[in-house]
Amino acid sequence: MCSSCFDIEYEKFIAYKDFDVFEIELNKRIESGDLILHKSDIENDGPFECLYRCITCNTVWRLSIPENAWRGYFLSEKNAVHFKKALKKEEKKGSVGCIIFLLILVFGIMYSIMR
Ligand SMILES: [Zn+2]
């Protein structure tokens, strides 16, 4: 990271306004040639993910554009990998919680029927 690119990363854009402000800064850097679109061998996770590379320090940035409930992110390649792993773990935790809740519900219904 250097003065030509960004000194902050976003794990999510809390409001659309935050993204608008960020996008202006991003476009400035693209127009000045400090950041260029980057093609990566690592697969993109969706059509909303764009990669940029800083021509000064070679940092690769991953941008996921917020869309509806998805809050997006803007992270350096290295941090994006960690972030997405943590995100997947959270998703798994959520689905286990869901299954436990359903089991309790089913047992509750069976118990009330058998009484
Ligand atoms: Zn840079």
From TrEMBL:
<protein>
    <submittedName>
        <fullName>Uncharacterized protein</fullName>
    </submittedName>
</protein>
<keyword id="KW-0472">Membrane</keyword>
<feature type="transmembrane region" description="Helical">
    <location>
        <begin position="94"/>
        <end position="114"/>
    </location>
</feature>
<keyword id="KW-1133">Transmembrane helix</keyword>
<keyword id="KW-0812">Transmembrane</keyword>
